[in-house]
Design a protein that fits this description.
The structure holds 2 protein chains of 2 kinds. Chain A is 70% helix and 1% strand. By secondary structure, chain A is an all-alpha fold. In chain A, strands 1-2 form a two-stranded antiparallel ribbon. In chain A, α1 runs parallel beside α5 and α2 crosses α8. The radius of gyration of chain A is 20 Å and the shape is globular. Helices cover 37% and strands 20% of the residues of chain B. Chain B has 12 helices and 18 strands. In chain B, the strands form 4 sheets. In chain B, strands 9, 10, 11, 12, 13, 14, 17 and 18 form an 8-stranded mixed beta sheet that branches. In chain B, α3 packs parallel to α4 and α8 packs parallel to α9. The chains are: A mainly alpha, B alpha/beta.
Chain lengths: 316, 427
């Protein structure tokens, strides 16, 4: 019973991270019908920035106050970095292809993904102490254990809840609620929803569609940057391929929840987290991907629009 | 996602081309001997990209030291050495395509008389038949999967499948895992550990050693809580769910058959993350500083055991200690566990060439039969008919203060019946 509860908790925390990344996929898809394959790699680069900053700030040896301030600064900087990079990619790569056939930006996105992966490989080879002196660019990098992994219920308790788990769940929830409120209640959010529903009509109504799309990339990138810091602090290992792996899960989460739908992405992320955990518990570690993607196929066969998606072209 | 998967494969192929071009010089068209009758080439094929690089660098240094001591000369022959990479950046680990390309290139270059490699047993599986057909002698300083040489220890068609010419061309200077896996289980038992959960990384090497460990554990009364050896996904982000499941079974020990590159570090981290207090035992594929870096020293200190198919540099005696001293003097760094095996592989190659006395692959192959060393860096030993070393000394190491520390010598001179060479391990 305790084990089951523990697995639920692990599923919840992992699911939250997938959901944060999935939000970036789903927002861009909602507005452009573009699967931004580079999104996962953006997340990876942001995690490299976070690790670089940890090394530069010397956070491993900092006191509690310094640590909290430093981490906040890193969250902000990683978020800004990923947001800026995402916006730039849209401006340089996707925007010139706005009126091209749908396949053109899609293939470009895959190209951007490879460029970012190789940037990550190069970044990991920098001669910094946090990167193991840059001895092996492709090797996994250890992300320092800055948030305590001690059991808050006491060292002997059967159930294990740590400050790390709380950090992931609470901070992700705050960000998700803020995002939902932003899209629901602000002018820009309304403009995003309008653009998603019908770009032409939105333009006729006086909405600057390009600016709205740019803003979407900014917000999605910011979420990836935030997720990258959380991921690093929680999993404690990053490498240049985490973008591909997590991107795959996050994209699956977005599709599962109904791509283009924000609460759907969160639900999809959580479902994936839970399925992974229970597959490890009851079936066997090697079957995890098979169980996960098998379930995705089943759901898409019986509910092609995803769990929360709607049939009509109404998105975000 | 199909599109992405396909593209990833294409990118892998791209990397292969890149690595090939960046490594050895392009082969002249048609191959063949180009260096005249006195030029002999020795090449090594080891993973030089990715986290195994630190380990393989010291292995290549070991080879260089051996050649350097002979002044790159044997009789009238001038030795040329090339350091080839069998890994790709895309994988961050050895890559089957690159290893296959290396084997082909070596087979077609008649100047090459020795192929020193590989580090990973899975890679050897690819190059062995190619080199065997070409009659090229291969000496591995790192492969430990038993099936590569020993009949009855792996698949039914092993090792014949690696010897299409019917002759033995593959030799290894390290003892194989049928001994190492056993020693690991015996050590655990000696330490008073009662139960174990066995995992492996899905690779040839990991599966081989994890199975030997699990079988031996059952035989000697160590309770195996996993269904045999359980496979994990070496590319997974984390293993918390798996570790939570294992924690509920309350094992004394978790055994992971696999390498640093197959995520051994994350396993150590996640054991701690879920509060699993069992000890962790890993084989020689993790006997490198990269493992301590990947896992974080605080997650290993005092709870990890690393078995190694030989002695750590600090425990080498006689010529071995001399090797460590010379290594430090020449390279201004510490040798890792496998450096001495690189050195011995290089030495053996030179001795075989001297014995053969001519630039001819067949003569070299003949010369290798029954070769050995008397009072060498690894002591006195010789190759048996399968190409295995007669050495069986094994060590168990632990991690203290972020460094490997020698704990116990197992097997070796005080060889127990279970360690008799030639005896097949329990199935």
């Amino acid at each position: 019973m305790v084990t089951l509860l523990q697995q639920l908790l692990i599923g919840l925390t992992n699911g939250m991270v997938f959901a944060l990344v999935a939000l970036g996929y789903t927002m861009v898809y909602g507005i452009l019908e573009l699967i931004n394959f580079a999104h996962g790699d953006l997340f990876m680069l942001a995690s490299f920035l976070a690790l670089t900053l940890i090394g530069a700030f010397g956070l491993e040896t900092a006191g509690t106050a310094g640590l909290v301030l430093g981490l906040l600064a890193i969250v902000v900087l990683s978020g800004l970095f990923a947001a800026g990079l995402n916006w730039t990619i849209d401006r340089l790569v996707y925007r010139p292809l706005r009126n091209a056939p749908k396949l053109a930006p899609l293939v470009s996105a895959i190209g951007v993904s490879f460029i970012l992966q190789n940037l990550g490989l190069f970044w990991g080879g920098l001669p910094m102490a946090v990167f193991g002196g840059g001895n092996s660019a492709a090797a996994p990098k250890s992300f320092p254990n800055l948030v305590s992994g001690e059991n808050l219920l006491g060292p002997g308790a059967a159930l294990r809840i740590t400050a790390k788990d709380l950090m992931v769940v609470i901070s992700s929830l705050v960000v998700m609620v803020a995002l939902y409120a932003f899209v629901r209640f602000t002018r820009l959010g309304k403009a995003m929803r309008a653009t998603a529903q019908n770009p032409l009509a939105a333009r006729l109504m006086g909405i600057d569609v390009d600016r709205v799309i740019g803003a979407t990339f900014l917000v999605g990138g910011g979420l990836a940057g935030f997720a990258a810091v959380i991921y690093g602090l929680y999993i404690n290992t990053i490498n240049f391929q985490i973008g591909y792996q997590n991107g795959l899960y996050a994209f699956t989460a977005a599709v599962l929840g109904g791509i283009g739908n924000i609460p759907g992405a969160v639900l999809g992320g959580l479902v994936i987290g839970f399925v992974r955990a229970s597959s490890d518990q009851f079936i066997g570690a090697q079957w995890q991907p098979a169980v996960l993607f098998g379930m995705l196929i089943l759901i898409l066969v019986f509910r092609p629009q995803g769990l929360l998606g709607t049939n009509v072209r109404e998105k975000v | 996602m199909v599109a992405v998967a396909t593209l990833a494969t294409v990118a892998g192929a791209g990397c292969k081309a890149k690595t090939g071009a960046g490594g050895p010089a392009p082969e002249p068209p048609g191959g063949g001997a180009t260096g005249g009758p006195t030029k002999v080439k020795i090449v090594s094929s080891l993973p030089r990209t990715g986290s195994a690089n630190a380990q393989t660098t010291t292995m290549v240094n070991g080879i260089r030291l051996a050649l350097d001591e002979a002044n790159f000369k044997v009789g009238d022959f001038t030795i040329e050495f090339e350091d080839w990479d069998d890994a790709s950046a895309k994988k961050g680990d050895w890559d089957p395509e690159v290893e296959a390309a290396n084997a082909d290139r070596a087979a077609n270059d008649k100047d090459i008389l020795f192929y020193l490699g590989t580090y990973n047993s899975g890679a050897a599986k690819i190059s062995m038949p190619v080199l065997n057909k070409a009659g090229l002698v291969m000496i591995s300083p790192g492969n430990t999967y038993p099936g590569l040489t020993k009949p009855g220890t792996g698949e039914p068609n092993e090792p014949a499948v690696y010897r299409p010419s019917g002759r033995v061309t593959y030799y290894r200077v390290v003892p194989a895992d049928d001994i190492q896996g056993k020693v690991g289980a015996q050590f655990a038992k000696q330490r008073g550990l009662k139960s174990v959960y066995v995992l492996y990384d899905g690779g040839l090497y990991g599966q081989g050693i994890a199975n030997v460990f699990a079988n031996t554990a059952e035989d000697i009364g160590l309770k195996v809580l996993s269904p045999g050896a359980e496979k994990i996904d070496p590319k997974a982000q984390e293993y918390r769910s798996l570790m939570t499941k294992i924690k509920a079974l309350k094992p004394d020990l978790v055994y992971f058959g696999g390498t640093t590159q197959a995520n051994a570090g994350q396993i150590a981290k996640d054991m701690v993350a879920v509060g699993l207090t069992a000890k962790l035992m890993v084989p020689d594929g993790c006997f490198e500083n990269a493992f301590i870096e990947a896992a974080g020293a605080q997650n290993l200190n005092g709870r990890a055991f690393i078995t190694f198919g030989g002695l750590p540099p600090s425990e080498l005696k006689g010529k071995g200690a001399e090797f460590v001293k010379n290594y430090r003097a020449k390279f201004h760094s510490e040798p890792e566990g496998y450096a001495v095996y690189g050195y011995v592989a290089g030495k053996v190659a030179l001795e075989a060439l001297a014995k053969a006395g001519k630039k001819d692959r067949d003569a070299v192959r003949e010369a290798m039969i029954g070769m050995g060393q008397t009072d060498g860096a690894l002591g006195t030993w010789k190759f048996d008919a399968n190409g295995d070393t007669s050495l069986t000394a094994m060590s168990v190491n632990t991690v203290k203060n972020a460094k490997f520390e020698f704990v116990a010598l197992m097997g070796g001179a005080a060889s127990q019946p279970a360690n008799e060479p030639g005896k097949a391990p329990p199935k």
